[in-house]
Amino acid sequence: GLRSHGGGGHGGIHRSAGKGHEHGDGGREFQHMTKECLAETRKVEAKYEKAGKEHTKFGSHEIDCGEEEQTCKLTATQGSGSMKFSKCFAKVCKQTNIKLELEANKPGVTVAVACTK
To answer: Which of 20, 79, 107, 109 is packed most tightly, with the most Cβ within 10 A?
Structure first.
């Protein structure tokens, strides 16, 4: 006889965001960087891409950001290993928030951030 699987309920776990955030970035919520900072930084990235310039450089602190942006040199350290990277952020972004945001996504990683406007 055929047995029907009755009352299967919903498969899969529903993760509710709880706070009703709208998530643009593949479901990742930004906890520290402001919406203004994110929006302005996206504009910076688009502008640099259009100009054929780098807005983010991994493994190096040598990045050339424009006058309208701030240059942030970042060093992520985990255990005995560390990695340098640099990025052009919009000036509305706060250095502390950038640090907190990066550390929030990567438990166990310490990020040093030095921005010059």
So the answer is: 109
pLDDT tens string 73-95: 999 999 999 999 999 999 999 99
Helices within the chain (DSSP H only): 35-51, 95-105
Helix (H, G, I), strand (E, B) or coil at 116: strand
Pairing of strands 81-90, 56-58: antiparallel
14-23 pLDDT, tens digit per residue, is: 554 444 444 4
- Rounded Cα distance between 105 and 65, Å, is 25
**Taking the model in full, what pTM does it have?**
0.73
Characterize 106-117 residue by residue with b for buried, 16 or more Cβ atoms within 10 angstroms of its Cβ, and e for exposed: eeebebebebee
Q: Which helix (H) or strand (E) holds 57?
A: strand 56-58
